Amino acid sequence: MYAVLHPSNFFAQAAVHQRPELRKRPFVVLDGEPPTEMVFAANNAARSLGVEIGMTRLHAEAFSEVIALRRVIEHEHTAHASLHHVACMFSPRIELVKERPGTYALDIHGMDLLYGDAGQLANKLRQSVMTAGFLANVAVAENFHAAVSLASSRTGVSVVPPGCEAHAIGQLPLTALHLTPEHEATFAAWGIRTCADLAGLAETDLIARLGQVGKKLHSLACGTWPHLMFPIEASFEAGLVERMELDFPVEELERLLFLISCMTTTLLERVRGKARAIAALRVILRLDGGAQHERTVRPALPLQDTPTLLKLIQLDLETHPPGAAILGLELHAQSAVPYRAQHGLFLPQSPQPGQLEVMLARMRKLLGEERVGSPELTDDHRPNAFRMVPFAPPQPRRSERPSLSTPIALRVSRPPQMVGVALTNQIPVRVFWDGAAYVVCDAAGPVRVSGQWWSEANWCREEWDVRLENDTAKRLCRIAFDPRSRCWYVQGTYD
Amino acid sequence: MGSAAAIRVQVEARLAQRVPAALTLKIKQAPELFSTGIAEVDAMLGGGIPRSSITEVSGASSTGKTSFALSAIASITQLGNACAWVDVSDALSPEATAAAGVELRRLLWLRMSAEGGKKVKVTDKPWSRLEQGLKATDLLLQTGGFGAIVLDMSDVLPQHARRIPLGTWYRFRLAAEHARTALIFLTQSSCASSCATLALRCEPAAAVPFSSSGETPLFERQQYEFARERNRNEGSPFLQRKPTQRVSWPAETLWSRVR
């Protein structure tokens, strides 16, 4: 048993859904690029004044009482979402009828326990749609196509008892069957006006003249053409959105966090219902002046607790604050399978993923983005070339250490410190560093290194390992001479 | 003696609500130790550096503090533990770290900002960097789960490091005990005082002359010397001052490995 919900003149209804005061007044919906806009939809009041679909904007504006509206695709999406939401309340199996915009077919088999018989259900469905702000026809029939034809052609609620489909749609005009223009012209030439006329024709004769399409049209007119239903599979991910408009601009993040906390909790409840966790949370702040501020919080592992997610959002927004007062906010979540790990009793300890994530966010706020992470050596000849990568320790695992001798560590001066160097026979003999004079006891070098000679970022230097000594201190350093700037620098100290 | 034991039991029973086992000597459990990766130092320390407590390594420049700490961190990361290096002077060399055998993916490196990248003199006041370093260490200890944390203050002058309140070190000691983390301080002069379970002093050793076997002289190896000033991990329940023990250990440059 199918119940079909058809909002007549859907595009016009969608255009004024947010502005109900326009419903009683004549209006047209214009679509296209200026100045070649055309009338795309019009309400009955405008049609009665003489407005037709396909008129140009200038023609439509000639009617002084008619209000011209621009087509907004988002409004149509919102209207679709509202109707979809209402349809979902009456049946878990619904299908969108593609050839008729805004029309939904509901499989109501077994729903009588909840909503009463077919007539009661149809009335309740129509009532709910009207409460949502749409005027719709509802038809209930055993045959899907018969129900669609009835809903699109007959106003109000129509309920067809099983087996009476042919009789019920018999008086409908042929346009109810959604024919192609060629077939419409053919049937008009034959003098066939209603579905009953078409159903009265012999099927074999119709096939002989129109081909296999004839069989389909004959069955449609008889209300016997079968239909395989493909219910809409609601996208879970697309529904993980929370929006909120603020009554007045908010500048303090603390006040905003209260709202974000509620929205995050709502999202988490939805996600937990599917035994999943939040893998990423995108926060979009609509700012005063029309700009948007977008931040994405992506924990290393999917999380299921609000406080951790809220703390991560807070730290991220504090590190990257919006430039103006906030007028509205949106939260888009991305779900993933929750993290589960079997820890061993005898494995080394490692930081808890949630706590680690919050700690890293705090560190990034304290020190800066580029100063927190693990070092990773890059494939470069330049000494001490590295990049910072996010800290994500692998699973605890023992590894064998190669039995090598202990290397001497170099403590790098960042940035290199400039020093004065006295040379004898091209060998450093004295170094003046931070106001102290050192005697060079031992010097090894020069080691000439260079790189990237093919680009503007080329570099070269002569490096010396020197043992420095004065009355108070002894140091073992690496100093370098840059021939381009003709300066000596301390690269680092061996320690 | 029997009556003395009975009196002790009575006193303990009376005080049990307020002070459990008031007159019974606490049996100290042997601490868990992390090997430092240097056989000579491990032999002197009886196995390595203690977990859940503070180890302070102090000494002037070029006395082997960083080489020692990197070697210890390498051993700890190879056990599968995550470690952190709080770099107050932003002086850690990733090349030297990798050469020491540290698993870089298990190392969290926190680089304190050097006052907006402007040139910093040794004598400049390092308050903001020190404050950042202490705050970062606090956060790491609160998070827990790290096998070892190195607070590298090697380039902070002693007069600046000594101005850190003693309460900070006490707090760190309790937090390290709670988080079961080996907290290693690298400083120019000892500042954690009695909070450090193990205190090592790095002393200048005899200079090894540069090798001159090739065309040009080459810096190949260095000898370092450590003196153990305090070790609270030793078994005796009675606190008594032990004589300072010394050990000398070698380290060599990367290029001498290739030779």
CATH superfamily of the largest domain in chain A: Reverse transcriptase/Diguanylate cyclase domain
Judging from the principal axes of the Cα atoms, what is the shape of chain B?
Answer: globular
Q: Determine and state the CATH class of the largest domain in chain A.
A: Alpha Beta
Amino- and carboxy-terminal Cα gap of chain A: 84 Å
What general outline of chain A do the C-alpha atoms trace? elongated
Q: Approximately how much beta-strand content do the residues of chain B carry?
A: 15-25%
Topology:
The complex is a heterodimer of chains A (495) and B (259).
Chain A: E1 2-7, H1 10-15, E2 27-31, E3 38-42, H2 44-49, H3 57-61, E4 67-70, H4 73-90, E5 94-96, E6 104-107, H5 112-115, H6 118-131, E7 136-141, H7 144-153, E8 157-159, H8 165-170, H9 181-190, H10 195-200, H11 203-210, H12 212-222, E9 241-250, H13 253-273, E10 277-287, E11 292-297, H14 306-319, E12 326-336, H15 353-367, E13 372-377, E14 386-389, E15 410-424, E16 427-433, E17 436-451, E18 459-469, E19 474-482, E20 487-494
Parallel strand pairs in A: 2-4, 7-8
Antiparallel strand pairs in A: 1-6, 1-7, 2-3, 5-6, 9-12, 10-11, 10-12, 13-14, 15-16, 15-20, 16-17, 17-18, 18-19, 19-20
Chain B: H1 2-15, E1 33-34, H2 39-45, E2 49-50, E3 54-58, H3 65-78, E4 82-87, H4 94-99, E5 107-111, H5 127-143, E6 146-152, H6 158-161, H7 166-179, E7 182-187, E8 196-203, E9 221-231, E10 245-252, H8 254-258
Parallel strand pairs in B: 3-7, 3-8, 4-5, 4-6, 6-7
Antiparallel strand pairs in B: 1-2, 8-9, 9-10
Helix pairs in contact in B: 5-7
